[in-house]
Write a sequence for this structure.
């Protein structure tokens, strides 16, 4: 497994501190499952609230990245409001892969093909360090949540269901 991905290159270019953490990705998991982040948390021995999942959604038909704790669900109504839209829905996995350049299970908010608007769940800022996908299945990056916010220019909002 390579520890250099478009995500880690983007973080290095942004000049933020991060560490890379590999784990054994369970390929028997359903790659479309909402629980991929929970698998990462368990494999890393971390609290799921500190292991954030990166989801791709459509707000008024436009791609939006949303980052939430792996043990939580997104409120589409709150997400739409945070992104300045009227309606939101989850993006289908093939479309998410096409838009981001990453495989489902390895989608990172950093280094996507085209940077899209990003919403960061506000509760993530309560932690000193958080984990996010590092751009491939089985690879996480650990960093300050304020750096996550700043690198992707995220809107911080309550988007939990």
């Amino acid at each position: 497994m390579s520890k250099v991905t478009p995500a880690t290159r983007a973080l290095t270019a942004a000049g933020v501190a991060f560490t890379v953490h590999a784990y054994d990705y369970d390929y028997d998991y359903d790659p479309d499952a909402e629980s991929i982040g929970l698998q990462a948390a368990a494999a890393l021995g971390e609290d799921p609230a500190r292991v954030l999942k990166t989801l791709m959604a459509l707000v008024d038909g436009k791609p939006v990245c949303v980052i939430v704790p792996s043990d939580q669900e997104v409120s589409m109504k709150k997400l739409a409001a945070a992104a300045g839209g009227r309606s939101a829905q989850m993006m289908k996995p093939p479309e998410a892969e096409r838009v981001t350049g990453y495989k489902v299970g390895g989608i990172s908010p950093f280094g996507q093909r085209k940077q899209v608007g990003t919403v960061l769940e506000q509760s993530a800022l309560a932690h000193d360090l958080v984990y996010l996908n590092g751009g491939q299945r089985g690879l996480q990056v650990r960093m300050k949540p304020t750096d996550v916010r700043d690198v992707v220019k995220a809107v911080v909002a309550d988007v939990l269901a």
